[in-house]
Design goal:
heterodimer, A: 1001 residues, mainly beta, globular, disordered N terminus, B: 509 residues, mainly alpha, three-stranded mixed β-sheet, two-stranded antiparallel ribbon, 7% strand
């Protein structure tokens, strides 16, 4: 559609007063490489008269004598032909590579030649309700992980390393030109975290661009520090109306990985040994005391339940989309509707989305275009219950012991599990207690584009985004979690409204044919308001789930918050003859989030690039067919803080049902944006027209980072946000796209690798910050460095847990110390010093895709990988108690090297000895993996067969994802990671098998 | 053409107008507008802060009992409070579930209470001639004194703070050293005097009254003797005189009303209590849920030590046993008595007909149902932070200090008549009698640990089978195991790191 716009600009450029002579008609066909080219502007030189070629490339125009026709189409070399006496004039246009790049408009302005902006068009290969998950491994410089296997859950997207500690690391989203942030999205509950991409049907997406460097992001100013995800949805096209129908049907199942739990024999063995130790008896005599075991005639009798089988199931996915697009020279349209349903692999989780979209653009006249885009989606999501609830299958499948049967003898699920560490039986409760989020999202965008003169254009975008989220959580009185409340219901309802208005003047002119100058100047205003109410009642009748039926209306609440942004935007670019490029960008942002005197911030970038292959010395070179080098530097910001974080605030709560006011937030007038200074140098080289290599090196210095500086508790507060930190991310990105085989059988490979190093360069007074019990921020180390006592296994004399002393002292002869591998270890937790043990951020991430095509067949396989990140497995810490507690444990805890008798130098303590669960490197695991993310085999029916059926395109395909993962992680999937690197009862991603069909009429 | 120009012009004008960055918070009051906050709301805020989970919302009470002779773990402790139970606290032990800004550890939660009191007392905009403001100041003095007494009981030497920073800059600058206990006691007495001066509340026990300030002083005077033996006599005299003043207004809860007394609020015995209304419930995190039985929908993490009951397997019974003692009356039904008894032969519970967990070794288990339900909410409780029984028992101890066991026996008799069925008076009592009575009277009310230490009695923790699992001797500085004196709390690691001026930790931690 941008091409269309610019062709009209060209049209306007040619507007000169003319004289008319004797009229006659000339017609012809415009082609490119033998294919008809629709949409080409055919202009009678020296007049305003012109036409546009139709779908078959045909045109017809009335001319006078001595007429010259100008054939122009964006991205093609313009041709001027003197008609003479001909009445038919067929023209072949050639692509003009220089012009093609110029017109890529990214957000506010044209794409800067100095930016490396990965563009991902195939976003529907991975079956997921959230398109972010299909971006994983496809572009250098971006690390994407699912945060949960919950269908529709938010993805963690980190561009060029985390640049913030406490403010969000989420990128900015720009959808069809409108800014959205993750924080504008209402989060209903823990499992149901969402991001703006989950509301979009992936089938509606034209492409996604990832803006990383200063050149690309500076115009987004105060919110661009974490990069920008730019989403463009599909638009209409002139020509015959085309209807496309597509569907996908799939099944999914658990990928168990290394998370296998103990079976009943193993559990009974471990637990009886633990009891024997605790009670000073023998394991044999304790068999009857193991939970779930009954002694019948001196023989232990117990069942063997694999709880994982009860918690996970075969999930299913099905989606249907219909789209219709078409239009003429003046008006084009696209409308689409989609349905997506996914039944999660975890019982009690599903996701259904109904979505519809329209995109209409209309050329009002030569000068004015208008465009309307609308998107509405309705999502009904059933969330798995969090691991902190008794009835949670996530909790149960780990903790429940195999010697307990979930069913009564008559086959009905037990309401209470006797002998089980968790009395709740999720098999019984999961369908009684629902946690359902229903969200309706709407976006309306109106754009106008007014060409004031041939070199000056005014553009305006007005958008309103509304998100309406209702959440209901019902705990049945028949379920364990609902027992004490006699059944409870909580409801919340929140509405987020965002208004955006962008007005931009853009200037574009070429002087003397070689000096290309363009500039923009604009203003943007955005306001967001979120309001919500919630209520909670107890005493719910079993069949009725409305708050109205609550016998005891316990509580209600509400909230309201707001922020505003006001921004001035400017950019000037110059290039000399398509060889030397320079751009300067500037944005001044004001935000209501900061204190009155600290509201405004300035953000900018400067960039330059050199298109070497356009120089004479490389012209015609057949080895290096395309080459450029580029560099940029700039400053962007991160303003993702609470809306009123700078104010000193009193909060209101209650005491004995009367108002209670207390001080809740220290006033913080110095609070300001985090800044990220981005430097980038890179090169793009294409050899033999077949191998393209993009290389980038970057240094991104984050400054004024908001850190929670720990305060003495005597100040009434534990910590305060201050702009005290600095952090550096530096790294290399390589992207290699090769066409290995051309011709009838094609084979393409896309490979990318991103190496990133994160280092904290400044903290207040160099003082470490304890982020949580396991991680610190320390100067010279990576953010979230694990700072733990180092696990030393079992004390050989007692089998008690031990940690390396790491204090550099000689402990010869001291009680409670022993030597392991030449190092002192202690059984007293407090005496062991903590040491740095790595961080959650991978040193390298990337992906490799191979795509093969032969005749109508296409086949691809896609690997993703991640190296060097650590995962703290808090789930394992919770359950693997060395059998001190009657929880089930991982099978690997049973087969592991364990202390049996005095003198054993073992990795694990004696069964039944407590203390080994305290935080230590024992639970820190390597998160590296190599995953076969996707395999797809497709077949596109030959055109001649399709045409007989009066169709224009038919494709069928089958795909499998997450088939295989190579990893040492002792959980389900290392690909499902909390952004902190600490996993706790996570909902894993499953294996998915899908079949699909696309038919165009 | 004109039409488009108008359209574009309108769009431009529309873009530039109605833009403003001035947004006011809708849910909070900016500190600049403190006059808009009423004195009564500020008082509410003080007591609201005392209800933090780390303080009287749950944990502080538990810390006084878990890890003493009164409590044993059940198989359902879920790892909660294990460091406390096993007497292996260290300065990283901050209790379970705590340690964030909205859910602070006990040390930080207590200082937040002190902070909000200081904020009222240092205000320059409040109209100090206004009687409502004066009452608020009195409440603030009381609350500050109360909180410091708790710090003195549980931590010992801690920083003495009487100012409240309002900006981040001021808060960062606050890195205080520890104060000596004597200096803190001096501040406590000064605050109590000011509280008595300013407090006008006589209508409710859920705010402080003048009597509450006096009862607090009784507590402070008793604990001061621990750190300053020279004050034995003079403090005992003051305790007796304050107790006599209070004795005319308050009375003990009758023997048949004990269960109701703990489930409800008010009562003749209560001098000051912290009201938890049902809307302040924390669900499963309610105080009573740690103790109450699973079948009542509670955690049942800890139960009464079997050594309190004269059970067949026990080698010894502590505190002279609890037979005929209404405070330990058992029942096999919920909501009937303070203790729920689970028997071996009760193979089926009342809800599910599933076999319940039983220990083959022991015939009975006793669960604490003192905090079963309040305001129609399971596990909720309105803690009676100052009640007449404490004044009475403290008076008894004071009489023993004054070498008057007959007068002490009078006080003890008065209490026991309201607690033990068919009690016959005694003529004399010993310190040990008073201490044991105190243990039973305040069982599971968060007093035992501090009393054991104050009276230099050995701490012995037994499991539910009656086996000793941990011990501590309060007379050994640094503790038996040399890992810190377990009858004291360490200053948390978080504070040690954030405030380098605080110096060495206390008590060998």
């Amino acid at each position: 559609m941008n091409k269309r716009l610019l062709s009209l600009i060209v049209l306007t450029l040619m507007t000169i007063v003319s004289t008319f002579a004797q009229d006659r008609t000339v017609s012809g066909v415009v082609t490119e490489g033998g294919e008809p080219l629709p949409g080409v502007t055919v202009l009678l030189k020296g007049t305003t008269k012109g036409t546009i070629t139709d779908l078959d490339g045909k045109y017809q125009i009335t001319i006078g004598d001595d007429a010259t026709l100008v054939f122009s189409f964006v991205g093609y070399t313009t041709q001027q032909i003197t008609v003479g006496q001909r009445s038919t004039l067929d023209i072949a246009l050639e692509q003009d590579s220089e012009q093609l790049e110029e017109v890529t408009v990214m957000g506010y302005a044209k794409k800067d030649m100095a930016s490396n902006t990965p563009e991902i068009e195939n976003v529907t290969d991975i079956v997921t309700p959230n398109v972010a998950n299909s971006l994983q491994g496809k572009a250098a410089g971006v690390n994407i992980n699912a945060s949960s296997g919950q269908p529709g859950a938010k993805a963690n997207i980190v561009i060029r390393g985390v640049g913030s500690v406490n403010a969000s690391s989420d990128p900015l989203y720009v959808i069809d030109g409108v800014i959205q942030t993750s924080s504008d999205i209402i989060e209903a509950n823990q499992q149901g975290k969402r991001d703006p991409l989950a509301n979009i049907n992936p089938e509606d997406i034209q492409d996604i661009k990832i803006l990383k460097d200063a050149a690309a992001t500076a115009l987004y100013g105060a919110r661009a520090a974490n990069g920008v995800i730019l989403v463009t949805t599909k638009g209409g096209q002139a020509g015959k109306t085309q209807i496309t129908f597509s569907t996908k049907q799939g099944v999914s199942s658990l990928y168990e990985g290394n998370s296998k739990k103990m079976n009943a024999d193993q559990f009974v063995s471990a637990r009886s040994q633990a009891l024997a130790f605790q009670n000073g008896t023998t394991p044999e005599s304790e068999l009857g005391n193991v939970a779930g075991v009954q002694m019948v005639d001196g023989v232990p009798v117990y069942t063997n339940t694999n709880w994982v089988d009860h918690a996970y199931r075969q999930g299913s996915t099905s989606s249907y989309e219909v789209s219709m697009k078409g239009g003429d020279e003046k008006t084009r349209f696209l409308v689409s509707g989609g349905y997506f349903n996914q039944e999660g692999i975890l019982v009690g989780s599903d996701f259904t989305r109904y979505s519809t979209r329209f995109n209409v653009d209309h050329k009002f006249n030569d000068r004015l275009d208008v465009q309307f885009i609308g998107n509405a989606s309705y999502i009904d999501q059933l969330d798995a219950s969090d691991g902190n609830l008794f009835s949670s299958p996530l909790l149960g499948e780990y903790m429940n012991i195999p010697t307990v049967n979930p069913y009564n003898e008559d086959g009905t699920p037990k309401s209470i599990l006797a002998n089980n560490p968790v009395a709740a039986n999720f098999v019984h409760d999961v369908n009684l207690n629902s946690r359902r989020t229903k969200s309706t999202t709407g976006q309306l965008i109106g754009k106008l584009n007014y060409r004031m003169t041939d070199w000056l254009t005014f553009r305006q975008t007005n958008a309103v985004n509304v998100e309406d989220v209702k959440f209901g959580n019902y705990n049945s009185a028949l379920s364990y979690d609902g027992r004490s409340s006699s059944g409870s219901k909580s409801n919340s309802w929140a509405v987020s409204t965002t208004l955006t208005n962008t007005s931009i003047f853009s200037f574009d002119k070429t002087f003397n044919g070689v000096h290309n100058v363009s500039a923009i100047g604009g203003f943007e205003y955005q306001s967001n308001k979120v309001t919500g109410i919630n209520a909670y009642g107890q005493g719910m009748p079993e069949l009725l789930h409305n708050l109205d039926n609550a016998a005891n209306p316990v509580s209600m609440g509400g909230y309201e918050t707001e922020y505003r942004f006001m921004s001035f935007i400017g950019q000037a670019s110059y290039n000399y003859d398509g060889k030397y490029y320079a751009t300067a960008s500037y944005r001044r942002d004001g935000s209501s989030k900061f204190a009155r005197d600290n509201r405004w911030g300035n953000f900018y970038s400067a960039s330059a690039s050199w298109y070497i292959s356009r120089e004479d010395f490389l012209s015609g070179n057949e080895t290096v067919t395309d080459a450029k080098i580029r560099s940029s530097y700039g400053v962007t910001g991160n303003a993702e803080i609470d809306n009123f974080e700078a104010r000193g605030l009193y909060a209101y709560s209650s005491y004995n049902n009367a108002s209670a006011a207390y001080f809740t937030q220290l006033s913080n007038p110095d609070l300001t944006w985090e800044k990220r200074k981005k430097f980038n140098i890179g090169a793009d080289v294409t050899f033999l027209d077949r191998f393209t290599l993009n290389v980038d090196y970057y240094i991104e210095n984050s400054e004024d980072l908001l850190l929670n500086q720990q305060l003495s508790g005597t100040s009434g507060f534990m910590s305060a946000r201050r702009n005290i930190g600095a952090m550096k991310n530096s790294g290399w990105e390589f992207q290699l796209n090769t066409q290995n085989l051309k011709g009838e059988f094609t084979w393409n490979t896309n490979f990318n690798i991103s190496l990133n190093k994160n280092e904290i360069t400044r903290l207040d007074n160099g003082q470490d910050i304890q982020i949580n019990g396991q991680q610190i921020a320390r100067e010279g180390s990576a953010m979230r460095t694990f700072f733990l006592r180092e696990w030393a296994g079992a004390d050989p004399s007692s089998g008690a847990p031990a940690w390396y002393a790491n204090d550099g002292e000689d402990h010869t002869g001291k009680a409670g110390y022993f030597m392991r591998d030449g190092r002192w270890a202690t059984t007293t937790y407090g005496k062991a010093e903590r040491v740095e043990m790595g961080n959650p951020y991978p040193k390298a991430v990337g992906g490799i895709t191979n795509t093969f095509a032969y005749k109508g067949f296409d086949f691809s396989f896609f690997f993703t990988y991640s190296l060097g990140g650590k995962i703290y497995n808090s789930t394992r810490r919770f359950i693997d108690s060395d059998a001190v507690y009657p929880y089930n444990m991982l099978e690997s805890a049973y087969t592991a090297d364990r202390w049996q008798q005095e003198g054993d130098m073992a990795d694990n303590p004696r069964w039944g000895v407590g203390g080994g669960q305290q935080h230590s490197s024992r639970f820190l695991e390597d998160g590296s993996y190599l995953a076969l993310r996707n395999i797809t085999l497709g077949y596109t029916l030959p055109k001649h067969i399709v045409k007989k059926a009066k169709l224009s395109n038919v494709r069928v395909y089958a795909s499998a994802q997450n088939l295989w993962i190579l990893s040492d992680y002792k959980g389900f999937t290392p690909t499902t990671v909390d952004p902190t690197g600490i996993n706790f009862f996570e909902y894993p991603e499953g294996k998915v098998f899908t079949g699909g069909l696309t038919v165009s009429f | 053409m004109k039409l488009y120009k108008i359209l574009v012009g309108a769009a431009l004008v529309g873009a530039m107008t109605s833009c403003s960055l001035d947004v006011e918070p809708q849910q909070h009051v900016d500190v600049d507008n403190i006059e808009a906050v009423s004195p009564q709301d500020l008082i509410g805020g003080l007591f609201n802060r005392m209800q933090a989970l780390g303080y009287y919302g749950r944990n502080f009470n538990l810390y006084g009992d878990i890890g003493t002779d009164l409590i044993s773990a059940t198989p359902y402790d879920g790892g909660r409070f294990q460091d406390h139970y096993n007497l292996r606290k260290n300065f990283t032990t901050i209790g379970s579930d705590t340690g964030s800004e909205t859910n602070k550890n006990t040390f930080d939660a207590i200082y937040e209470v002190i902070y909000n009191a200081n904020l009222i007392l240092q205000s320059t905009v409040l109209d100090k001639e206004d009687p409502a403001v004066q009452n608020a100041m009195g409440q603030a003095y009381f609350v500050r004194a109360f909180a410091y007494v708790d710090l003195l009981k549980a931590y010992g030497n801690v920083p003495l703070i009487t100012v409240a920073p309002v900006t981040v800059e001021e808060a960062i600058a606050l890195k205080p050293e520890k104060a000596e206990r004597a200096a803190i006691f001096t501040q406590v007495y000064a605050d109590i005097d000011e509280a008595i001066n300013y407090i006008t509340n006589t209508s409710t026990k859920i705010n402080a009254s003048v009597d509450a300030a006096k009862a607090l002083k009784v507590r402070a005077l008793l604990f001061e003797i621990e750190s300053d033996e020279s004050k034995r006599e003079v403090n005992a005299d003051m305790i007796i005189s304050l107790a006599d003043e209070l004795g005319s207004t308050y009375a003990l809860t009758p023997i048949d009303k004990l269960f109701d007394y703990y489930q409800g609020e008010g009562g003749e015995e209560t001098i000051f209590e912290l009201k938890f209304a049902s809307n302040q419930g924390r669900g499963s995190n309610n105080y009573g849920n740690i103790y109450g039985h699973r079948n009542a929908g509670m955690y049942g993490s800890y139960q009464v030590s079997p050594k309190l009951f004269n059970l067949e397997h026990d080698s010894e019974v502590i505190l002279g046993g609890v037979s005929a003692d209404a405070r330990f009356e058992t029942s096999k039904e919920f909501g009937k008595s303070l203790i729920y008894q689970e028997d071996f032969d009760l193979r089926y519970d009342t809800i599910s007909t599933d076999p319940i967990v039983v220990d083959t070794v022991r015939s009975q288990h006793h669960y604490i149902m003192k905090y079963y339900s309040h305001d129609n909410t399971i596990g909720l409780h309105t803690p009676k932070l100052l009640r007449f029984a404490e004044v009475l028992l403290t008076k008894a101890e004071a009489y023993l200090i004054k070498n008057d066991p007959a007068k002490a026996a009078e006080a003890i008799n008065m209490l026991r008549e309201n607690r033990i069925v068919g009690y016959t008076d005694v003529a004399t009592v010993t310190f040990q009698d008073v201490w044991d009575e105190r243990a039973k009277e305040f069982a599971f009310e968060g007093q035992r640990m501090w009393d054991l230490r104050r009276t230099k009695q050995k701490v012995t923790v037994s499991n539910r089978l009656g086996q000793v699992i941990a011990t501590e001797d309060p007379t050994i500085i640094g503790g038996e195991k040399g890992i810190g004196q377990q009858t004291w709390f360490p200053i948390p690691e978080r504070e040690m790191l954030a405030n380098p001026n605080i110096g060495e930790n206390n008590w060998g931690y």
